[in-house]
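Section 5.1 Outputs to date
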Amino acid sequence: MKVKDKIQLNNVKREQLNEPNLAYYEEMMLYIRLSSSKSEQHTEEILLELLEHLLEAQKEGKIAEEVFGKNPKAYCQELIAEIPSETRKEQIKFAGYISLLFLAIVSFLNGIVGFGFHYLFQFGTGLSTFHLGSGIAIVLIDLIILYLFILGALKWLKSTAFKPDKQKNKWIEFIQMWLVCTLSIGLFMLVIYLMPEFGRSVSIPTIAFAGIGVILYLLSLLIKKYL
């Protein structure tokens, strides 16, 4: 069974849990899944096993705490330690997929927005000029920022698991994530603003960036197919 099939099966079976058991299990699921360096295949297998075990216990009138204990975080950490790490090949494929998807979105939006502003509001030009050297440098730096943002977001989300006052701090956590996202976007823009121009100058129609975005998106789907 493929990973996506296991995830779908998990989603279906999870609906059979009562509210307290569902809340307990979903915290465990979030914490385990956020261990990004671990094999996704093995991770989903363990999550399904935990779910099956809890469903059987629920039929006997038991609650999740009776099954997994009063310290689910420690229990999950023990499980995570037993999950093998993702292979380097799979890590590279996943990084390639995320990088291409990010570049596809940025390129497509740049093309569509630039084209729209020029032809609808006569703002800017229909031709974009950039320098290859600085363009490549901006892309590489932005990918590093993206990687750090994703890593930081995963660690932050993992740190919010199993907090008893999670619902009370919901708005505080939302503001924190909003600030991090705003800072990341600001850094992306700052790199573009501060990067000196160097390398060969190239001019292409602004709308061509939308086409490049589509091509990059198709390439990302091709990589994802073999993940």
